[in-house]
Write a structure and sequence with these properties.
heterodimer; A: Rossmann fold; five-stranded mixed β-sheet; B: alpha/beta
């Protein structure tokens, strides 16, 4: 199949089906409602399950119930909706069930706005719900990348028995781009007999399965959380993903940026190059695990004078960038958080201020 | 002569953590008997609550999920939608179902989800230590209504069975009690009927069971049974509030 022109939200829905996920529960919210509208008919056509829940809270538990049966399941939402789902996400993570959540971010806090934002970086990468847990967080910068990440998200969720979150800004959901569905990315689900609560008759063993999150004994809870921690450490070893841009020459500044913002930064970097200023960029494609080492290495280059974290929010990822750079170079933040995407000219101006 | 009475296969050998005189054990046994009689243990998934019965999965021998407070009907929806061949039930107390989880139960019932809810109404929060529930009786003392439930301030107890029966969607909604043997026999019949409707893929079903909490009521088990019968049953009327047959008869499309 060749390329088709599709809106990001619809492409995300289609990608889930192509990934073999036929179970969809959701609650409408701007700017991701098109996923639900697309799947309302498409999922029925594909013979899958489509259900509009009564709230994001309920939806997160429909996801939990279905995921605990070992079925592939996903839901898209947007910032305020994800806040409500964070309760369920904490439980799903504790219960070690695979599921895929998509957050098409809008401005916050509160109702905020419906325009694109990256203000849920902390919520996605540092928890959001209660307790010690992490999500594997993927950040697409194009509709094509969103589609590929959705397809890779299901096997990754199953590999770690942990939810995966696709963190896209509103533009990723709303813009139309040519996209190709790479069906070879589909991975068959692994055997879930040793944990899924899908009825004793489903499996050969006569041991019943239990999906739970309560550990009243402190030693047991500690051991359980250490088991979760080991998975996050494994993610940090095996799932770091980033893209370098213009890091070959002697760049004077390093930009760290992800999602739609990184595309603007790319334009800014090209424009600055034409004006004789070399600037490099590291674009994290996975936000957790974060490419600390790659950023440190890039920042430590002799020619590099400063690091700039460019975000569509008040500066959240900048804290991780600071942790990566370990004080070796000054780290700055630039961004906007009302729903406007900073222009290439604004990024150029901010970058030029940092170098001699 | 062979054995005529034995432990249901669906019940485990684990000794329960419930207080003396608590009716959870009776409810568990009835569910296990019904599951055995219908021969569905191998395809049953229970969804436990948050509350005294949070550890109930220890007492059964089939697959179980442990829900968050009030969310069991949403989890059961998730299970039943992706695996309609499974038999699914939620087991919830009054704080869980009638307070924090009221939205989830109402919408699951209204969608006509094909699972069964066993609703334990003992007029009090048990596990957290005897606080007022939405089902606490007028003037009933609890740790958060030390002078008795004041209806002028917090309203009347919610009659969940009547509330769910008011929905237009067909369902099986019944209230029975566990406060004396004659009621327990009727309760078992209701549970079996509820599971049977589910097995036939007919409708959502809920069995509300008037129960006791001697510990948090500050009574002996016998006094608690008496109190429930005298104070709760006149308010929480027993019987079938809704059956799918009634709705089918009235269905204008049929």
């Amino acid at each position: 199949m060749g390329k088709v022109l599709m809106k990001g939200n619809e492409a995300i829905g289609e990608a889930a089906i192509r990934a073999g996920c036929l179970n969809y529960f959701a609650y409408p919210i701007t700017p991701q409602s098109e996923v639900a509208e697309y799947l309302a008919s498409r999922m029925t056509e594909a013979g899958g399950v489509f259900l509009q829940g009564e709230s994001e809270v309920a939806v997160s538990y429909m996801i939990f119930g279905a995921a605990a049966c070992g079925e592939r399941v996903f839901t898209p939402s947007s910032s305020p909706g994800i806040s409500l789902m964070c309760e369920g996400i904490s439980y799903i993570t504790a219960a070690q069930c695979p599921a895929v959540f998509v957050n098409i971010m809008r401005g916050g806090p509160g109702l905020g706005g419906i325009l694109p934002s990256q203000a849920d970086y902390m919520q996605a990468t540092k928890g959001g719900g209660h307790g010690d847990y992490k999500l594997l967080v993927m950040a697409p910068a194009s509709v094509q990348e969103a589609v590929e990440m959705v397809m890779r998200a299901f096997p990754l969720a199953e590999k770690y028995r942990n939810p995966v979150m696709i963190l896209g800004d509103g533009l990723i959901g709303q813009m139309m781009e040519p996209v190709e569905f790479l069906d070879h990315l589909k991975v068959e689900p692994t055997n879930k007999d040793d944990w899924a609560t899908n009825g004793l008759d489903t499996r050969k063993s006569n041991t019943r399965n239990l999906v739970k999150t309560l550990y009243l004994n402190p030693e047991e809870l500690n051991a359980h959380n250490l088991k979760l921690k080991a998975k996050y450490e494994k993610m940090e070893r095996e799932e770091i993903l980033y893209e370098n841009f213009n890091l070959e020459g002697d760049y004077k500044a390093l930009i760290v940026s992800y999602g739609t913002m990184s595309r603007v930064c790319r334009t800014a970097i090209n424009n600055l190059k034409a004006k004789g200023l070399e600037v490099g960029m590291v674009r994290p494609q996975h936000l957790f695990p974060f490419p600390h080492k790659a950023i440190l290495e890039a920042a430590e280059k002799q020619s590099c004078q400063a690091v700039l974290s460019v975000e569509m929010c008040m500066g959240q990822m900048v804290e991780d960038v600071e942790r990566s750079v370990c004080g070796k170079r000054p780290v700055h933040w630039f961004g906007k958080c009302g729903g406007e995407v900073p222009s290439p000219e604004e990024v150029m101006e901010e970058t030029q201020k940092l170098v001699n | 002569m062979g054995k005529t009475f034995q432990k249901p296969e669906a019940l485990s050998d684990t000794i329960t953590h419930y207080c003396p005189g608590c009716t959870h054990g009776v409810a568990h046994r009835l569910i296990a008997e019904v599951i055995d009689e219908l021969g569905i243990r191998g395809r049953t998934v229970g969804v436990g609550p948050v509350g005294c019965a949070v550890l109930m999965y220890n007492y059964f021998t089939f697959d179980f999920q442990e829900a968050a407070h009030g969310r069991a009907p949403a989890m059961a929806t998730g299970i039943k939608r992706v695996r309609p061949d499974l038999m699914v039930f939620t087991y919830q107390g009054d704080g869980d179902l009638a307070s924090i989880g009221l939205s989830e139960i109402m919408h699951a019932a209204n969608r006509g989800e094909k699972f069964t809810t066993i609703f334990i109404n003992n007029a009090v929060y048990g596990m957290t230590g005897g606080q007022m529930a939405p089902t606490t009786m007028p003037d009933q003392r609890t740790t958060t209504s030390p002078f008795g439930r004041k209806v002028a301030e917090v309203g009347m107890p919610i009659k969940v069975a009547e509330l769910l029966a008011a929905l237009e969607t067909p369902g099986y909604i019944v209230r029975q009690a566990l406060v004396a043997p004659k009621y327990i026999n009727r309760a078992k019949k209701a549970i079996k009927k509820a599971f049977t409707y589910q097995q036939e893929n007919r409708c959502f079903s809920m069995v509300e069971l008037i129960s006791t909490c001697p510990t948090n009521w500050g009574m002996t088990p016998l006094d608690a049974l008496k109190w429930a019968e005298e104070k709760m049953l006149p308010y929480y009327k027993l019987g079938e509030f809704k059956t799918p047959e009634a709705a089918e008869i009235e269905d204008p499309d049929s």
